[in-house]
Amino acid sequence: MMRGSMLLRLKPSFRAFNAGIRSFSVSSPSRAEKGTIGFVGLGNMGHHMARNLINSGYKVIAFDVMDAPLNAAKNAGAQICSSPADVASQVKRCVTMLPSSPNVIEVYTGKEGLLSTSQSGTLFVDSSTIDPSVSKDLALKCAEKQADYMDAPVSGGVNAAKDALLTFMVGGSESLFSDAQAILQQMGKNVVHCGAVGTGQAAKICNNMLLAISMIGVSEAMNLGIKLGLDKHMLAKIINMSSGQCWSSDKYNPCPGVMPTVPSSNEYKGGFGTALMTKDLGLAQNASSAMKAPTPLGSLAHQIYRILCQQGYSEKDFGVVFKFLQEQENR
Q: Is 204 annotated as catalytic?
């Protein structure tokens, strides 16, 4: 096992994972399997994605560094492996869902990584959100092993992952897109080919920069409105039928109690971690500097989320910026 060199945390907040274990449904032994797929990274998003593949009829061979998600995957019908290398030795298609660029590099190229045992003709689909340059480099390393690589980061959040409603932004060879699409459409409702390797990541970091900005904006508006005496439910309703409507207001409202099924109404547990949003905003700022494309609001959002991490909110859902703003009033 890779407990030494690859001491990763594959999508954090596993304290919230126990609640998610119940979301796995044990597959019927009589199901018609569509084939075998490897899956590495069973975190807040990944364990739902793997479950949807199992429920769609695929045999899933899985690995994670944490025992809880592995046990849940096993209960759902997955075959458990001891390392990424163990996974790659048994499959010709593999999905990875990891927190950051260093994690992805280690899982693919480490001593017990996927490429150490990969078979010729294997298709790797990475749904992590990482630096586009890392995706391009991994594509070259996969090619050296006669394997193919596509980047396919996701958008939609935990609820969309649970309900197989994710959006996948795919970068890679057009000739391979249909193969990747056949897998990804079992986990999402939108699978979009963005262009060459790395373009999926480019689309994702642009989207997440906008998401962070809108989440801060909704948090500010909700907080101000409540202070002005407005009922939070009524204010959210007005925003969502007016020009301020956005995903952060009508699908993932950061104000506790407005939407009962999102992390803000569960003490900001689970969901998309603040540390991960901070990482994505850093990727966007790196790209902004490299391309000389000014992103002043993106830069400010990055600073705000860095402060949230410093204040101890790194493992809370990124909607916790609403709580942070409220706390500032008492300082």
A: yes
Instruction: Considering the candidates 11, 59, 204, 316, report the single residue annotated as catalytic.
Output: 204
pLDDT in tens, 195-219: 999 999 999 999 999 999 999 999 9
What average pLDDT does the structure give for the chain? 91
Q: Read off the pLDDT of each residue in 47-56 and give the average, rounded to a whole number.
A: 97
Is residue 120 a contact partner of residue 150, using CB atoms and an 8 Å limit?
A: no
Residue 330 is predicted with a pLDDT of 67
Is the pLDDT at 23 greater than 80, yes or no?
no
